[in-house]
Predict the structure.
Amino acid sequence: MAGTGEVWPYLLRRFPGLDKITALDISHRMHLEAVDRLHGAYAEKIIHIEADALKTDLEANCADLLVSTFGLKTFNADQQAILARQISRILKPGGSFALIEASDPKGWALRPIYRIYLDKVLPMVERYFLRGANDFSMIGTYTRNFGDSTQMANALIEAGLSVEIKKHFFGCATSVAGMKPVGKE
Ligand SMILES: C[S@@+](CC[C@H](N)C(=O)[O-])C[C@H]1O[C@@H](n2cnc3c(N)ncnc32)[C@H](O)[C@@H]1O
């Protein structure tokens, strides 16, 4: 769910020796925009694969690190279980993963205000100030349905990975990170 790859510059800075990023996204337009708009300078390091993350036959045990930023929220529980098995299959033994997603901060005192922001303000701001864009028109519904990354954490554990779940910004985002144990194929 690489999208336009906002996270790649940070990965390249954090791991200067990184010579290859495999960007998988189902959307053709996302791949084109990624190269055109953002990543011309190091485009040769990015391999683009247009595929469904739930069905990809990307080679087993091939990735040192697997990241997803804001790609989980449209998946239901069954799809998250499939994705978790894919992550477990694709990672090298000893390889790491980190996934983050916008979440519904249940229990936070300011949640009602944040819900108004997600449900109403954000879609309106982009409609009126970003030339009719509608990238965030469904963000309220998606975060409400997704809840947080607990379901994904359980699916990853079920798939044999070690997992740590964290809350960010009072639960407005949640992340799961961990690794594939050495010795697991
Ligand atoms: C909200 S965007 C996140 C993009 C980017 N990672 C970021 O941080 O801005 C979600 C991306 O997931 C992609 N996507 C949705 N379902 C997918 C699937 N089943 N397989 C691969 N990509 C998918 C969409 O095309 C979109 O680019």
